[in-house]
């Protein structure tokens, strides 16, 4: 997998100091600065400490199964255009090299709902999908509201079965401006994703 993070720090230089200090017990394979500069920090075939506790599908040790990319961003500001340009190129290169499908590109919040919120609501997941570096839901026929947790798990959200956390996590990535309780659009969107991209190639929904 590829896991996207933000640094939640004031600059790439500050983030680099943190990521390079062994005492902090945190690391990532790449750090991309606001200028678009890519810093390679851990070899792609080595384990970095970027995921922490979490789960995606059947994967519980995400660090051993993923490449982590940190983005220089404070968590509140728009992501710099040069950063996003280089990120797309980097992700597509990693995908090609390791044969990673687009639906295995996730955010830190996807694998750790309730514990992590990065890369946050300002991150442009739709752009990544348009450029083949992630996925985005298409218009679907929908499903009963009570199927939402099952559909979320089928797509990969297996770290929690808390309905409120699942909805918050889903909207953070796919409907960042939506408010209110679970609705038919939420379920239609996740139903489409679960049908087209079942995690770990589970059988399609009946």
Q: Care to give the gist of this entry?
A:
This protein has helices at residues 12-19, 81-98, 108-111, 125-130, 148-155, 163-174, 184-196; strands at 2-6, 30-32, 38-40, 67-71, 105-107.
CATH hierarchy class name of the largest domain:
Alpha Beta
Estimated helix fraction: 25-40%
Q: Numbering strands along the chain, what is their spatial order in the largest sheet?
A: 3-2-4-1-5
Number of domains: 2
Largest sheet geometry? 5 strands, mixed
How far do the termini sit from each other?
Answer: 27 Å
**CATH H-level superfamily of the largest domain:** Peptidoglycan recognition protein-like
What is the level-2 CATH architecture name of the largest domain?
Answer: 3-Layer(aba) Sandwich
Order of helices and strands: EHEEEHEHHHHH
CATH fold topology of the largest domain: Lysozyme-like
What is the percentage of strand-forming residues?
5-15%
Low-confidence stretches: none
Coarse morphology: globular
- The tally of strands reads 5
* Helix segment tally: 7
Radius of gyration: 16 Å
> Could you say which structural class the secondary elements and strand pairing correspond to?
alpha/beta
């Amino acid at each position: 997998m590829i896991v996207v993070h933000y640094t939640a720090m004031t600059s790439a230089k500050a983030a680099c100091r943190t990521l390079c200090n062994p005492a902090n017990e945190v690391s990532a394979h790449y750090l991309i600065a606001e200028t678009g500069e890519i810093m390679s920090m851990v070899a792609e075939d080595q384990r970095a400490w970027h995921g922490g506790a979490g789960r995606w599908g059947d994967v519980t040790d995400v660090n051993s199964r993923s490449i982590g990319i940190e983005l220089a961003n404070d968590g509140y500001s728009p992501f710099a255009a040069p950063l996003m340009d280089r990120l797309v190129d980097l992700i597509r290169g990693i995908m090609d090299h390791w044969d990673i499908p687009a639906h295995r590109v996730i955010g830190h919040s996807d694998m750790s709902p309730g514990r992590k919120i990065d890369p946050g609501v300002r991150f442009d997941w739709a752009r990544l999908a348009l450029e083949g570096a992630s996925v985005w839901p298409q218009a679907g026929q929908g499903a009963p509201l009570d199927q939402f947790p099952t559909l979320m798990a089928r797509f990969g959200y297996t770290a929690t079965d808390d309905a409120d956390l699942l909805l918050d996590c889903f909207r953070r990535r796919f409907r960042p401006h939506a408010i209110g309780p679970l609705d038919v659009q939420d379920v239609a969107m996740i139903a489409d994703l679960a049908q087209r991209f079942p995690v770990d190639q589970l059988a399609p929904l009946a």
